[in-house]
Design brief:
- This protein is mainly alpha-helical and 119 residues long.
- It contains 2 helices and no strands.
- It has helices at residues 3-84, 88-118.
- The longest helix has 82 residues, at 3-84.
Amino acid sequence: MNNEAKILEILERMQADMANMKTDMAGMKTDMAGMKTDMAGMKERIDQIDVRSQRTAVLMETEVERKLNLLYEGHGLIMESLDKLATKDRVEKLEDEIIVLKTAFKTMNQRIAELEKAQ
């Protein structure tokens, strides 16, 4: 094989390699176009998420805070009511007094009934 034949063979291989490279580059261009489309979709979704997060932040600042304040006020009212209620010890003392009063009332009713019978 002479030099010209070798050079021609090398050139043919180089042409085949270049054709393969062109095919690969075309595939890469297609892939890049797909990636650009995907990125545009992702940007749109990120924008939508940003809008939603802003709405959520506004909602939290207005509604949630307002409802927490109402809850806090209600808790304050409950605590005030609890302060006004009788304690357990006081209730037990009152129950004891009621028992004594009921017993006295029954005794008085019996005496009255006996006096009415005697007359």
